[in-house]
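Hello again,

I reread your note about wanting to compare the complex against the isolated chains. To keep things tidy I'm splitting this into two emails, and this first one only covers the full assembly. Below are the input lines as submitted, including protein chains and any nucleic acid or small-molecule components. They are followed by the predicted structure of everything together. The single-chain runs will come separately.
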Amino acid sequence: MNMRQQEKLKISAKKLQNNPARICQGDIFENIDIIESYEVKKSSIVLERINFPYVICLNQECDLENDFDSQNENKDSHLLHLAIAPAFIFEQYLTGKHWGDIFFPNNPQKRTDTTIKKIMDNEIPRFHYLKFPDTDLPELIVDFKHFFTINRNTLYTQLDNRLCSLDVLFKEKVSQRFSYYISRIGLPEY
Amino acid sequence: MDDYINPLPEQSVFSKTLDVASVKQSTPKRIKIEYETTGKIKDFSKKTSE
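Full-complex prediction:
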């Protein structure tokens, strides 16, 4: 097997063939808006929002399942907001301009850079690289430094924006790596 | 150990397909919109008596 064939077999994400009826851990949505702020003026309302091309759901699978199954029941398992993180097109990430006009651009990087190779091997805790075997999904990268919440019902009304559900193991890997990154302890330097 | 059974109900729709070539330039965008109103306020959380 040559290097090119090995590269082709190297995947870090796999999607379910059919999307489940409910939102699942590791679901990837496109075109999701997050409200930044709103201000009520005399006779107008100023609304600021950010449109994210892609986001991934980070909630635990059991929480999402219990929430969905108990919607018409008086159980203590309802979710108010869901945790999501933006996902970027990997090619765009390499240019350093993946945040558009929201943040200053980073320095461009190449696939041959040591750091990028590590990112693509998911060896850097901050990032999660998603490479699908399917050709209808681009390579994506999730930066765990950024995450936010979206109202549960709002996201359910946008279920048609879901691109795919990650398969078992792959979605659990995202969740496991996110929890590891978010629970890190930064020790002081002396 | 029991065999794993996927408990999820599935929709009949397949995962969406994406035109990968068209999304290479997609980045987050900040959008600011001002909605003009009549200035009247209706608080939907308060019960109104008919």
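For quick reference: The interface with chain A takes residues 4, 6-18, 20, 23-39 of chain B (CB under 8 Å).

B.
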